[in-house]
Batch of 2 targets.
Target 1
Amino acid sequence: MGLRKPEEYIQAIRHRKKAEIYVLGEQVEDVTKHPFLKPTVRAYAVTYEAAWDPALRKLAVAYSPYINEEVNRFNHIHQSREDLEAKVKLLRALSHKVGACVQRCVGWDAINALHIVTHMIDKKKGSDYHKRFIEFLKYVQKNDIALAGAMTDVKGVRSLRPHQQPNPDAYVRVVEVRDDGIVVRGAKMSITGVVTSEEIIVMPTRAMTEKDEAYAISFAVPLDTEGIKIIVGRQVNDCRRFEENEIDSLPGAFNHEAMIIFDDVFVPWERVFMFKEWEFAYPLVEIFSSYHRHAYGGCKSGLADIIIGAAYNLAKQMGIADKHHIREKLVEMVFLTEAMYAASIAASWRGRKMGSGCYWVDPMFSNVAKQLVTRFPYEIARLSHDIAGGVLGTAPSAKDFMHPKLKPLLEKYFQCLPDYPAEHRLRMVRLLENISLGVMFLIESLHGAGSPAAQRIMMGRLYDFEKAEKIAKYLARIEKELPEEIRGKPEPWRSDIEE
Amino acid sequence: MGLRKPEEYIQAIRHRKKAEIYVLGEQVEDVTKHPFLKPTVRAYAVTYEAAWDPALRKLAVAYSPYINEEVNRFNHIHQSREDLEAKVKLLRALSHKVGACVQRCVGWDAINALHIVTHMIDKKKGSDYHKRFIEFLKYVQKNDIALAGAMTDVKGVRSLRPHQQPNPDAYVRVVEVRDDGIVVRGAKMSITGVVTSEEIIVMPTRAMTEKDEAYAISFAVPLDTEGIKIIVGRQVNDCRRFEENEIDSLPGAFNHEAMIIFDDVFVPWERVFMFKEWEFAYPLVEIFSSYHRHAYGGCKSGLADIIIGAAYNLAKQMGIADKHHIREKLVEMVFLTEAMYAASIAASWRGRKMGSGCYWVDPMFSNVAKQLVTRFPYEIARLSHDIAGGVLGTAPSAKDFMHPKLKPLLEKYFQCLPDYPAEHRLRMVRLLENISLGVMFLIESLHGAGSPAAQRIMMGRLYDFEKAEKIAKYLARIEKELPEEIRGKPEPWRSDIEE
Amino acid sequence: MGLRKPEEYIQAIRHRKKAEIYVLGEQVEDVTKHPFLKPTVRAYAVTYEAAWDPALRKLAVAYSPYINEEVNRFNHIHQSREDLEAKVKLLRALSHKVGACVQRCVGWDAINALHIVTHMIDKKKGSDYHKRFIEFLKYVQKNDIALAGAMTDVKGVRSLRPHQQPNPDAYVRVVEVRDDGIVVRGAKMSITGVVTSEEIIVMPTRAMTEKDEAYAISFAVPLDTEGIKIIVGRQVNDCRRFEENEIDSLPGAFNHEAMIIFDDVFVPWERVFMFKEWEFAYPLVEIFSSYHRHAYGGCKSGLADIIIGAAYNLAKQMGIADKHHIREKLVEMVFLTEAMYAASIAASWRGRKMGSGCYWVDPMFSNVAKQLVTRFPYEIARLSHDIAGGVLGTAPSAKDFMHPKLKPLLEKYFQCLPDYPAEHRLRMVRLLENISLGVMFLIESLHGAGSPAAQRIMMGRLYDFEKAEKIAKYLARIEKELPEEIRGKPEPWRSDIEE
Amino acid sequence: MGLRKPEEYIQAIRHRKKAEIYVLGEQVEDVTKHPFLKPTVRAYAVTYEAAWDPALRKLAVAYSPYINEEVNRFNHIHQSREDLEAKVKLLRALSHKVGACVQRCVGWDAINALHIVTHMIDKKKGSDYHKRFIEFLKYVQKNDIALAGAMTDVKGVRSLRPHQQPNPDAYVRVVEVRDDGIVVRGAKMSITGVVTSEEIIVMPTRAMTEKDEAYAISFAVPLDTEGIKIIVGRQVNDCRRFEENEIDSLPGAFNHEAMIIFDDVFVPWERVFMFKEWEFAYPLVEIFSSYHRHAYGGCKSGLADIIIGAAYNLAKQMGIADKHHIREKLVEMVFLTEAMYAASIAASWRGRKMGSGCYWVDPMFSNVAKQLVTRFPYEIARLSHDIAGGVLGTAPSAKDFMHPKLKPLLEKYFQCLPDYPAEHRLRMVRLLENISLGVMFLIESLHGAGSPAAQRIMMGRLYDFEKAEKIAKYLARIEKELPEEIRGKPEPWRSDIEE
C-alpha cells in the first residue's frame, strides 16, 4: 500500500470501529471532528503530509529493508547514525508546522526499542519474539499505520514493587493465559496522542524482579479493541478549543494525553513481544527512554524557535527589538535552545549499531539532552514573558476585540508601532501565552520520557566514577600509572553492541 | 462609619451606579454575581473580613491619626517601621486565605505614595495638593472604601516620550481644563482588581519632561464615572470559572486585570493631586513602585507556601515525601520562598520617615525583593511540577471523574496510597496546576510593580559605585585613605527624608 | 581597663607566653612580625581601632550591663534587635577597611551562644554554668580580650558518632577529670583567626547522644596554654605574602585558618561551660551557627563591594564602564550582594529575646542568608572575572613590571585609557585576583558557619510543612476550615524564647 | 623527518637560539629547566608522546595529504568530520594525562583557520597566500614543529578602532615594508604555551575597516626571532612551583600565558599570510575562534573529569560517597561536564567542508559549547568544593605534614576512614585546590577563545530570527504559509562552504 496521504489517514481513523474515548465526561463520536481532539488529528496529518512535501521529504521518508520500500520515517527502524540525526531534525522542522508536540514519536521509539530487545531476548532465551515483531513491523510499514506507545503505569504506591502493591492492577499485568493469547488488565497514564493512533504498543515501565513476572509484558493492540477505555486528560487553556473565535486558542495546536484503561483486554500471541522475561523489562525501559529523551532535543528546540519568533515579533511591535537588554534576552533564548539541540545531535552521532541491526543513540548524551530540557524551557519561557510584558496575562479577549463598540478603542489603545495592526499583537500574545505556559512546553518538558530523577540515575550509572578517581589518583601521585582506558560497567545490553 | 463588614462591601459594589465593564465581549450586569469576577469579590471581601477575624485583626487593623479611628490596614498610611512589616505579614497571611493575589494593595501603595509626593510638591511649589489629598484620604478611611491604583499606560511606541507619540493618547493626559476640574483621555493597562473597587487612583507611569506636562497628572475617580470603560483581560484557564464543578478551577480564586479606557472623563479639582508638575512624575513612580515591590515579598511567598503545601501533600499521597530527592526539592522551595520574604522584611525595617510623616520602605531592599520575585517563582513552580509528576498535565477532568461508568475505574487507578481518596489527589493536582501555571504566580511575579529591567535601573542608581571604587582603590593602595562614608547621589526626594 | 588601643592589643599578643604555632613547617617566633600572620594581626587591630574611629564608633562600641561600661562590640552580648543589626553593618564596614575576613566574629558569636545555652542548662539541671560564664565574660569585657571560637572537630569517619569512631580522639573529649578541672584531647580544624587571639572558646560540633557525653564539653583556654599546638593552614596565593613587592599580594589582607591540637590540655573548672550535658550540644550548635550564619550577610557583602569596585574601576580603565552588557553585569553583582545583606538585616529585626536576656537572630532568615552566601559569591566572582578580562589570569608579575628594561614597554602596552597609569591596572587586577579567587570569598563562603547541607537541614526543620499542607487542603476544599496559626515544632530552646 | 619523540622536542627547544623570556622579573636561561615553565614543557612533551602511545596513537596521529605522511594531529589539517571529533576526544584524553591545559591547540586552530582564509583571499584577490601557507605547513608537518597562536592584542581603549587609538601600537601593525618582508610592532596578550613553542602564528584580533589596513596582518615567526620579548604572566598559586615538596603544587601541571612584545620584528614575505586585506580580518577571527571554542568542550570536560574524580575520592575517604546529597552533587557535575562535551561533539559532526578542502566546525554549536564553558566550570568547582569541605581552604602545608613532630599528629587527626592514609587526603585536597581554583579552569574557561560576549554576538548573528518570526506569524495566522526554508544571512565565508 505504501505511503498514505494525510486524507487517507484521516478517513482511516474516522471509519474504524468506534473506540471508547471520553473527553470532559462525554463519550466521543468522531475524533476527527471533536474540537478537543482535532488539533492532534491535524498534527498526525502533518506527519503524513510531510512525506509528500518536497521540502521535507528527504527528512520524512526513509527506505525500509524490511519491506524493501520507502516508509514514513515515523515507522522507520534506524539503519545508521544519519537516520538518528534525521529524527531530531525532522522533529524540529515539524514542530514549526504543528506548533505543538507532534505526538507520533512515542510509537516510533517503541518499535526501535522492541526491535533491539526482542532480538536480545531471543538470543538469551531461544524464543522467537523478534520474528513475531518483524511481522508486526511489516504490517505497520506496509499500511503506514499510526502508532502510539504506552509505558507509564499508574504505579499506585511509588515505593512498592508491582507485586507488592495493595492494588494488584497498579501496573498492567497478565490476568489470564489462553491458547490463542493473553488477557491483560491495568491502566497506563499520560499517554501522548493515543486517540488519533491506530495501534498502541504497550511496554513495562520499570525494572522488575522475578516476582513481578506477570507485569513483564509487552504487546500491541488496535485502539478499538474491546475492553479498552480511554480518558483524555485536561490541559491548561483546553476549554478555549471550544470557543468560536480562533485567536484566543492560537496556535490552535494542542496535544492530548490520555489514560488508557485495559479492562481485561485480549491480545493474541502474535502481538505479544515480551511475556514474563522480567530481566528484560529494565533494558527495554532504558533503551526506549534513551531513544525518547533523544527526541526532546529536537521537538522542544522547535517549540523554542516559535517562542523566540513570537517574542522577537512582539519586541518589534513595541519598537524595542534593538534595545540591548532585549537583544541579550533573545540571544540567551537562542543559546539555551541550541544547547538542547546540540546534545541530541551529539547523541545521534555517537549512536551505535545493536545486535538486531538497529542503531541506538548514545545514552549519556540522550540523557544530557533531556536533563537540559527539564530546565531550559522554564527559563526560555521566563525570558519570553519578560520581553512580551505584562500584557501576556492581561490582554483582552478576542471577543472584546471583535465587539463593535470596543474594536475602535482597542485598535487605538492596544497598538504599539503604527506599522503593526493591534490584532497582530493580540494574535502574537495569544500564541506566546498558549505555547509558553502550556503543558507541552513546561510539564511535558519536565516529565515526558521520564522525570529528571530518572535521567540523573542513568547519567550516574553511565559515568565511570572509578575511572575518574584513577585519573585523579594518578595526578595526585598516589598511583604511578594512569590506567588503560577502562570500559564502563557491563549492562545486560552492552554485550549487544556490535559497533 | 468605621470598619465595614464584608457583606456591607459587597452590597455597596452591587448597588452602585452601573459601571461599564466588559468580560469576554459582553457587558457585565453585576460584578458580584459574574463567574469571572466573583473570585475577586471574594478576595476583597476577605480583606474586609480580616478586620473582624480575631486571629488577623492585629495585622489587619491600624489606628489612623487622620480620622482618629481604627481603619482597615489597606487604607492606612504607614506610621512606623512596624507598620511596614505588618503589611508584608498581612499579605502573606491573606494569600493563604484567598489562594490568589489579594489585589487590594495597589490602591494602598498609591495613597502612601501620594501622601509623600503631594507634600513634596507643596513644599517646592507652594501648592496645596497635600491638604486636598488628606481630605480624600479621610473620605476613604471613614467610609472604608475599596481602592484601585492605575499606573501603567498603554505606552504606544516604547522608545518615544509621551509628547512624541504618534497616538497622543498613548499616555493618559489632560485634554481640557475647566473651572471646576479637568477632562482626561487615554487608557491604563494591566490594572489589578479594578472592577471590584470603588475608586481608582490614577498616577503617571514614567519620568516626564517639560514637554510632557499634560501627561503629568494624578487624580482619583469613582469607578462608575461617566466615560470610563473597563475591559477585563483573559488569563490562563479563565474559562474554567464557567464550569459547573468546582474541582477543575480550584482554588476558585483568580485575580483579574483590566484595561481602563478614559474616554474623556471629568475630574473635579478636589480629586486632582498632580497637575503638570512634570518633575514630580518620576519621584511618584519611584516611591510608589518601591512600595509596591515591597508587597511582592509578602504575597508571592504566601502563594509559594500554598505550592509547597500542595507538592508536599502530593508527595505524601504517592508515598515519597521522605525520599531524599523530594525532600531536597521541598527544602529548596522553602529557601527560595523565605529569601523573597526576607528581603521585604528587611525593606520594612530599613524604612525611613518622610517629610509628610509617612514611612517609606528602603528602596534598595524593596527592589531586591521584587527582582528575586521575577526569578524564584519560576523555579519554585518547576520544582513543584517535578514533585507532582506528569499527572499535572494529563489528569482527567472532574467531569470524567464524576461520570458514573468511569468513577469506579478512576477511584481505583488514580489513587496512590490507599489512605488518600483519588479525589483528593485530583483536587490537589488542580490546585497546584491553577496556581503554579497561573498568571498570578508567573507573569504577575515578573511584571507586576514593574518589569525586571525597571528594578535593575533602580538598583543600579541606588548603589554607590563610586564609593565601592574608592574602597577598591584604597585596598589596592592607589589611594592612601579610605574616604569618609560617602552619601548616595541626591535624588529629588532624598532631601525629604526626615530620619 | 576598658577599650584597648590597637597598639595595646599588638603589644599584648607580642609579649604573651610563646604559643606553639607552626607555619609552613616552621615554628613561629612572633606572630606580629611573621609575613604569613601579619595580615590577621592587622585585621584584628582594625577591630580595636574602630572603637576609636569617630566614623565607626557608633557601630563599634556598645554599652555592656555586665561591667557597666562601654565595650568593643566584638565582645558584646546583644541587648536588642538594633544590636543584631549593628553587627551586620559593622562587619560590612570593616570588610572595606580590612579587605578580608575580619576573623573576630567567631569568638563573638560563641559568647552570645554560651550566654543563652549556659542559662538553659542551669534552668533544666540546676547547675551554675551561667554564673561561671558571666565571670569569664566580665574578664573578657574588662580586658578587651581578643577571642577565637573553635567548633569544627576533625570528625574522622563522617557517618559514625563520636563514641563510635575508630580514632576516639576524632572529636575533642575529656580524658581525665580532676578536682581542679579537666584534661581534654582532640583537635579542631579550620579555626579562623586563632593565632592572633588571646583566648579560645571551644564548643562541640554536632548533636550528641548519651554515649557521647565525654564529647559534650565547652570551655575557654588561653592560646598559650601548655599542650596546645596550632598548625596554620595554606591558602590560595599564600606564598605571595613572602614576596618583597606589595602589588602581587594585594590587598595584603589574608585571613588564616588553623588546626588546633589539644594534646592533653588542662582546663580549670571555672573555664568549663558544659560538661557532659549531651542534650545541650545540639542547641549550642544550632544557636551558635545561626548567629554565625547571620554574620555572613554582612562580611561577604562587604567583600562583594570591593569586587564590584575593582570590576567597575577596571571597566573604566578600559573605557567600557558604560557599555550596556558591562552595566548589566555590575547591576547583577549589586543585586546578588544586596540580597545576601537583606537576609541578614531581616534576621536581625526578627530576632527574639532569650531567657538569658540575650537577643538571638531569626534562625530561618539567618540560614537563608548563609545559603545565599554559599551560591552568590561564586556568581559574583564569575561576573567580575567576565568584566576584568583574561588579564586576570595572565598579567605580568610586579617584578617584571619593575624591571628597568620591561617597565617602559609594560607602561605602554599594559595601559588602556591614557588617564590611568598601567600600574593602577596591575594593582587592581591583583586586588581582584586575590579576593575573588581567594579562600575567603569562595571556600569560606561555602563552608564557613556550616556547609550548605547544614543550612538545608535547619531550614527544612524550621519551615512548617504541615501548616503549608493544611493551607493547601483548605484551598483544595479537602478541609473546610483554615486551621488557626500553627506553631512550629517544639525545639529544646523554643521554650526559652521570652519575646 | 616525521614524528618526533618527546625527548627530541625537548632537545630542540633547549638548544635553539636563546629567546628573550622573562619570568618574575628575571630572564630565563633554559625553559626546559625552569620550575615555572617545566610544567608546560611536560604538557607539550605529552602531546609528542601520545603519537607513540599505542592507546592514544589512533587519536594522536593522522595522515596528511600535504606531505603524504603521518603527522602529529596537533599539526593536522582536518580532512573530515571524524577528524573534528578526534580533536575533541584527544583533548579530553590528554587533559587526563597532563592535568592541565594542553596548550598546543591554539597553533593547531590557527593553521586550520589560515588554510581556509588564505584560500578565500586568493579566490577574491588573485593573490597566492594559500600556496605560501602550504609551504609553511609542509615545513611544520615535516619537522613536527610545536606551534603557538597569537591573536589577542593589548587593545588599549576598547571602544576605539585600531587606527583611532592614542597608542598606535595598541594593535600589532606593519611599521615598515621592505622588498624582502615587513617589520611589525605591537604586543599580544594572554598567549598560551608560547615559550615552549618553536613558531608563533600571529593573527588579527578583530574586524577591521579600510583605515585599519596596517593592522590587518597575519604571519609566522620563530620564537627566537630578534626583537621578540616574552613576559610570562602570573597565575594563582604559581610560586608553589618553586617549593621543594611536590604535594602542595599538585598536579604539578600548570599552563602559562605570556605577553609577546614585537619590538620591531622583521618577517620575510614567505611567512606573511595576510597583508592589508582588512575585509578578511573578521572572517579569520570568526573561523579561528569557532575552531578554538570547539576545543573547550574537550579540554575542559577533561579537567572536569579530574575534579569529579578528586571529589569522589575525598567523599570516599570521609565515608560519605554513598550519601544521597553527595551523590546528587556528583551526578550534577557529570551532567554539566557531559553537556559541554556534547556540544563540541555536535559541532564536529555538523562540520562542513570549506573551499580549501579543510573541514570547519559548526559555528553555532561551537559557540554554544564555549558559552556553556563560561558558566558550568564555576558551578562544577563550587560543587566539588561543597563535597571536599572547608579543608580545601585550611589544610596544613606539606611542610607541616613532613615535620617530624607534627607528622604523627597529622597522620592521626587529618585521616578520615582508616583505609586511607592522611597523606592521600592531603594530596587529593591539593590536587583539587590547584585545579578547581586555578586560572585554567575558571578564568581560562571564561575568557579563552573569546569572552562570553563574543560568543553571544556570534550566536545572535548565526540564529535566523527572521525565520523564527515567520514561523510564529504562520502559527498566529498572521501569514498564510510557512515560508520555504530560509537560509542564514550571507557572510563573507558562507559562499566558501562546499558541502
Target 2
Amino acid sequence: MKRLLRALSGEAVWPPPVWLMRQAGRYLPEYRAVRAGVKDFVALCTTPELAAEVTLQPIRRYGFDAAILFSDILMLPWALGHGLEFKEGEGPVLPKLRDEAAVAALDPARVAEKVAPIMETVRLVRSGLVREGFAETTLIGFAGAPFTVACYMVEGGGSKDFAAVRGMAYSRPELFQQLMNVLTDATIEYLSAQVIAGAEALMLFDSWAGVLSPSLFRAHVIAPAARIVAALKERHPGVPLIGFPRLAGVMTLDYAATGVDAVGVDTGSDIAAVAAMLPAHVAVQGNLDPLAVVAGGKAMEAEAMGILNAMRGRPFIFNLGHGIVPQTPPEHVAALLELVRAG
Amino acid sequence: MKRLLRALSGEAVWPPPVWLMRQAGRYLPEYRAVRAGVKDFVALCTTPELAAEVTLQPIRRYGFDAAILFSDILMLPWALGHGLEFKEGEGPVLPKLRDEAAVAALDPARVAEKVAPIMETVRLVRSGLVREGFAETTLIGFAGAPFTVACYMVEGGGSKDFAAVRGMAYSRPELFQQLMNVLTDATIEYLSAQVIAGAEALMLFDSWAGVLSPSLFRAHVIAPAARIVAALKERHPGVPLIGFPRLAGVMTLDYAATGVDAVGVDTGSDIAAVAAMLPAHVAVQGNLDPLAVVAGGKAMEAEAMGILNAMRGRPFIFNLGHGIVPQTPPEHVAALLELVRAG
C-alpha cells in the first residue's frame, strides 16, 4: 500500500508521508507559465490537460507523497449553476444567495455534465503518475465542505467575519438548511465521481468552520461531514477521507466523530495537543506555518522539527496548517522536504 | 465585593455578572449622537467628558455589571508616537513598522503625558458610576496585548492573514522581540496608570493570538501576558486581570498559566470544553455569538441558554465571544439581559 494510504489506515509510517496544501500554485514558476496562457482561473480548472499538468508539476519537482487534484472548492457551486468569477487581487466573486428562489435555482441535475472535465483531469493525473514513474504517489480528490461553500455563496465572496451567512443560519434556519442539504448531497455525488475517476483518497476543506458557534458547528460542520463520510464509505469502502475543519480548536474532538480517517490541523493549533485529544487510529495531518516556509532557514527548521518530534510514532501526514503562499521560495520547499525525509 | 469582582475572585456568582464587549458603540443611538459631534475617533478617545459619557451610556440603559473604559487598543502605540488614523469604513491606518529605526522612534517617555486624558476618563467614569447610583458596577480598564498591537503596527492596519508580522517574527526575531519588549513594558505602565486612576479590573485583548503557530504563541502571547500579569499583581495586589487570547483553541490551557484571573472565550469555542480544561478557580468569560444577538428571538435564546446551562456552578462572566456589531437592535440586548438575569 502507498505510504500516504498506510498512514490514513492508521499506521505510524516514518518518515511521515508529506504533501503541502496548494502545492500546485503561484510559488512555482512552471505554474505561473501555464497560468499566463489561460484566460481565467475557471478555464484552467476545466481544461483537463492544463489542470493535470499543474497537478503533476510539484510531484515532478519534489516527489510529494500525494498529488491533489488542481481545482477550486467553488467549482461545485459553479457546477450547480451559481455564478463564479475570479477577479485579479480580489478573490472569488459570486452572486449573493439570499432567498428560497436562489436555492431553488441550483440545479444538481447538471452537475455531472459540468464537472466532466474535472473528472477527466482526475483520470489524466492518475495515468500521468503511473506513466511518469510516481508509483508511490497517492492522488487526493477534494471538495469544499458544505458550510464553507455556503459561506462564499451567501456572502458573494470572501468576508472578514461572514456575518451574512451566520445571520442566515440564525434568522432563517430553514432556508439555510435547504441550502446545506443541496450542497451536502451534491458534495457526495461530486466526491464519489472523483473516486470513480481515480481519486484514491478524499479531502473535505472546511476553511471557515471556526467562525461558527458550537451549536452551529455541530449542525453545519459536523452533521454534513458525518453524512458525507457515511455515504462515501458505503459507496467506496476503503477510500479514506481527510477532514479539515480549520480553526475548530477544542471542537476538533467532536469533529473526529464524523468518521473521517484523518483530521487536518491548522497552523494555530498545538498539533500534539490535538493529537492527544483524538482516538489513536485517527491520523493527524499538518500543520507547519506557511510563513515559516517563506522565512526558511533556522525558523523553518525549528518549527518543522517541533512537529516531527511531536508526531513520531503516530499515524501522521506532514503538511502545512494552511495553503502555501505565493511568495514562498521554491528552494525552501526543497529544504523542508529534506528535513521531513530525514525524519 | 461587587458581583463581577466576586466572579473574578473565583466565586460562582449566580445569576452571573454580565457585560458585552463593545457595549458602548455604534448600535446605540445615544452613542451615534455623541460620535456625530466629534471630528475623529482619536478625538473621542482623548476627550475625557465625551469618552466618559459614552462609557456610561450602556450602563444607564442596561445596568451592566461592568463598565469598560471607552478607548481603543491602538491608543497605546499612538501614545508611543506611532501614527494612527481611523478612516471611515477602512478601520485603523498606521505607518508600517518594519525596521530598527521605527522601533527606536517609539518613545515610552511621552506615554504618561499623552494618555493623561484617558486617565481622566477613568476618573470621570468611576465617579460617574457612584454619582449615578451604579454602586455594583465594576470599572474595567484595558489594553491591547503586545502581539495584537504589534500586528497593527507592522501591517499598518488590519490584515487578512497578518503575513508581515508573522514573517517578521520568523525572519527577524531580534527586531520583533525588541518591539514586543517595548510594547510589553509600555502596556504594564499603561494598565498600572489605569488602576491608579480608578480601574478595578483589567482586560488584555489579544484579538489575533490565534494566527500564531504554537511556538510563536508561547513566545509572543503567553510570555508577555505572564510578564504583564506578574508586574501588575506586584504593583496592585487584588486587582484582577482577564486575558482574552482570541482563537487560542487548544492553547487556552497554556494561556491560563500566565496567572490571569479569568480567560475570555471566543465565539467559536465550546465554552464547556474550555472551562473543563482550565483550573476550577480561573473564571471564564464569554461567549455568545454577536450574530445571535442580531438575530434575537429563539436563536439568541437557545444560544444564550446553552452557555448559561453549561456554566452554572462555575466562576463565570456572561459576555459575547466577540464585540457587539453595529447592526444589533438595542432591544435584543435588553431581551438578552432578561434571560441572563433569570439565570
